[in-house]
Write a structure and sequence with these properties.
The structure holds two protein chains of two kinds.
Chain A: H1 3-22, H2 24-42, E1 48-52, E2 61-65, H3 76-95, H4 100-119, H5 127-154, H6 160-192, H7 197-204, H8 206-228, H9 232-237
Antiparallel strand pairs in A: 1-2
Chain B: H1 2-37, E1 55-61, H2 68-76, E2 85-92, H3 98-108, E3 115-117, H4 124-134, E4 139-143, E5 148-149, H5 153-158, E6 166-175, H6 182-204, E7 215-219, H7 220-225, H8 236-246, E8 250-261, H9 267-294, H10 300-310, H11 315-331, H12 340-352, H13 359-369, H14 381-405, H15 450-455
Parallel strand pairs in B: 1-2, 1-4, 2-3, 6-8
Antiparallel strand pairs in B: 4-7, 5-8, 6-7
């Protein structure tokens, strides 16, 4: 393994991490602004952006203010959607064995969520509290992500420059994708309450972060495998 | 007070799971990078054809009419000297036409000496024990019945035995039914990572390669010195790996000795296969870990590596326990601090046990093998991970339940075959493979890769 490759990767990951820590607040603010724009495009009635404390010792960032109904205020349509979702998951579990366990897990989460909502039908999760939890999680992902990315895209891949560009691109992609997912979840919660929140959190949380990394990793491997086919010895000697 | 205690317990669980997975991640990443850095994989290719001792090929079979003809023909076609070759197809109480096929071959090839079992304990280990009593070879080569060895595979597997310290050798398993289902495509990525990546890397680093009785060879005297096959084990090959290791024998890995297998195409088959591996592997962990730690033949790092290898299936329930504890922390408002551990666990857990290989190792193997199209399946392994985790946890639950109550467990399960069609007569599999009606003892003209030709 060439030391240049290793140090270039570590250097870039360190730079991104340090910048993410120093500019944590502006980054979260930018995330909120992007989410605001997306919410506007989606027609979500976000009434304001209120201050939310994300990490102790850090100035508050902005969280969306949006009405999220309690279970007893949820429309009949949303309850029907819940039943349809469970039926759809049952069909998926029957037909696609690869994702059967995931479908079962989602069904259990949906059923548990429905029961919890029915029992505590006055329970509310404020949209600002949701924004707070979301940003806490995603901020940590953004801090960890560059280190995972250099392990997958810089150190083992044949082209150093392309590997470094992958890291920068995916860090930016992760940031934008996070805003998109957050707005989507806000939209679902605005119209259907908290019923769908646990399974959606599972699917659109760190699972989605991993999924997009793997999607792009497979593209990178696809390209590298094509380039290296037949010349792996000469490539390895320069690795 | 109770809430604080609960939070403490949850953090301890998430913390332990994260720590263990981090250690596994470090090990797997080191193996992956090491494999990439290897310019000349350690092997015994220079000795192929130089060391040609008498060899006995053992092929356990139970209702294998769909595949029996293929493997027997492939062995007949091998370039190993027939004078030094003995083949014992072990027909273990088959109820289909396996016996007819074997006898058809035995009539034409005098070095094929069938063993038809009608009594005794059932299962592959018991069949091997009985066959070994008849074997006259200095080296015993094992193939599963659904495998199709290449023409030079026996020579390649035998070459490392020129080193008198080598007790066993292991070849590379390559699935040939990659395109038949999504699952087989995903499993092919796992196999590539496991053999091209991890096995070669561990062998180069001086750790013991894991012997597999599906395409492997063992020195008869080494086998005898460790007391032979363990007929009680569900994974007799893993059991033998550690028995040999504890007695100072080396196991060599031969990456070039490719043998073509049929991987499971449906999840029910895969689950049962995985369940058997988990049970056998965990049994070996319980049987061998104290002796491993005390072994005078192994270095400290070899012991650590061996322990990691044996305990690998425990990681699945650890991931699940970590997730459940994370979920608990999520719903306790007092615990809403900085969720470092749950996020770290998610990253480590997902990427580690997508299959039994990390995504990095799959990527490394894909680059080395030049597999472009299949590498695009990689993200789907995230779903495969959930399926694997569920199956492993279930198998471990059964294993410990049976161990606790002293019951016997599920016993041997033969992986379902989908290749080929039923035979129409003796000596062939009815699908154009060798055997058939050929009157003379001769190698076939078509050579290798029958399976691929036929699929097309």
């Amino acid at each position: 393994m060439s030391s240049l490759r290793l140090w270039a990767g570590v250097g870039l990951a360190l730079l991104i991490t340090v910048l993410s820590v120093i500019y944590a607040l502006p980054i979260m603010e930018a995330h909120s602004r992007m989410a605001g724009v997306l919410a506007g495009w989606a027609g979500l009635p976000v009434t304001a952006w209120a201050p939310i404390g994300v990490f102790p010792g850090l100035e508050p960032a902005s969280g969306p203010v949006l009405a999220i109904p309690a279970f007893k205020e949820v429309s009949e349509g949303a309850r029907l959607l819940l039943i349809l979702a469970i039926v759809a998951l049952l069909i998926v579990a029957q037909r696609f064995s690869l994702i059967r366990n995931v479908a079962h897990f989602l069904m259990v989460m949906l059923a548990g969520s429905a029961v919890a909502n029915a029992v505590f039908d006055n329970f509310r999760l404020e949209s600002t509290a949701f924004g707070q939890i979301w940003l806490r999680q995603e901020m940590l992902v953004w801090l960890l992500l560059p280190w995972v990315l250099i392990l997958l895209f810089v150190i083992p891949q044949p082209n150093l420059l392309r590997g470094l560009l992958w890291v920068v691109f995916l860090q930016a992609y992760g940031f934008c994708f996070s805003a998109l997912r957050m707005v989507f979840m806000l939209g679902v919660m605005h119209y259907t309450g908290l019923i769908f929140m646990p399974p959606l959190w599972f699917l659109l949380g760190t699972f989605s972060d991993l999924l997009f990394v793997l999607f792009f990793y497979s593209l990178a491997i696809h390209r590298s495998a094509g380039e290296l086919w037949g010349i792996r010895d000469s490539w390895q000697s320069h690795f | 007070m109770a809430v604080t205690f609960l939070i403490g317990i949850a953090y301890a669980v998430v913390g332990s799971a994260t720590a263990v997975l981090l250690l596994y991640a470090i090990r797997h990443y080191l193996l992956g990078y090491t494999r990439l850095g290897i310019e000349t994989p350690k092997d015994a290719m220079d000795l192929v054809g130089f060391h040609m001792p008498r060899v006995t090929v053992l092929i356990p079979m139970h209702n294998e009419e769909r595949v029996a003809g293929d493997i027997l023909q492939a062995i007949v076609d091998s370039d190993y000297d027939w004078e030094k070759l003995e083949v014992i197809p072990i027909n273990d109480r088959s109820e289909d036409k396996t016996q007819e096929i074997i006898d058809g071959f035995a009539l034409r090839y005098p070095f094929i000496l069938p063993l038809h079992r009608t009594g005794g304990a059932s299962g592959k280990p018991a069949a091997l024990v009985e066959a070994c009593k008849r074997a006259t070879g200095e080296i015993l080569v094992m193939f599963d019945a659904d495998y199709v060895p290449g023409r030079a595979v026996i020579k390649m597997l035998v070459a490392p035995f020129a080193d008198p310290e080598v007790g066993a050798s292991m070849g590379r398993v390559v699935p040939h039914n990659i395109g038949d289902s999504l699952l087989s495509g995903l499993l092919s990525l796992e196999r590539s990572a496991g053999y091209q990546g991890v096995q070669q890397s561990r062998f180069n680093l001086g750790f013991t390669a894991q012997f597999g009785g599906t395409v492997g060879a063992v020195r008869a005297s080494a086998l005898e010195s460790v007391g032979g096959w363990n007929p009680q084990s569900l994974t007799e090959d893993t059991d033998l790996t550690f028995a040999l290791l504890l007695n100072g024998w080396k196991t060599a890995y031969v990456n070039r000795a490719e043998c073509y297998e049929e991987v499971p195409q449906t999840w029910s088959v895969r689950r049962r296969q995985l369940s058997r591996w988990v049970t056998g592997h965990t049994e070996c962990l319980h049987n061998y870990w104290p002796d491993l730690m005390r072994s005078r033949f192994l270095t400290r790092w070899e012991k650590v590596d061996a322990l990691f290898l044996l305990a690998m299936y425990w990681t699945a329930p650890m991931v699940v326990a970590g997730w459940m504890a994370s979920l608990l922390l999520f719903f306790i408002p007092e615990a809403h601090q900085t969720p470092w551990l749950p996020v770290a666990l998610a990253f480590l857990g997902y990427q580690l046990f997508s299959n039994q290989a990390t995504f990095l190792e799959i990527g490394v193997a894909s680059m080395l093998d030049g597999t472009r199209i299949r590498s695009l399946l990689l993200p789907l392994n995230l779903f495969n991970f959930f399926a694997n985790t569920g199956a492993i946890c279930n198998a471990l639950r059964k294993f410990y339940w049976n161990r606790f109550w002293g019951s016997g467990g599920d016993g041997w399960y033969k992986t379902h075959r989908t290749r080929g069609t039923a035979v129409n007569g003796a000596g062939g599999n009815g699908s154009g493979f060798g055997g058939g009606a050929g009157p003379a003892a001769a190698r076939s003209a078509t050579g290798l890769y029958h399976a691929r030709e036929r699929r097309g």
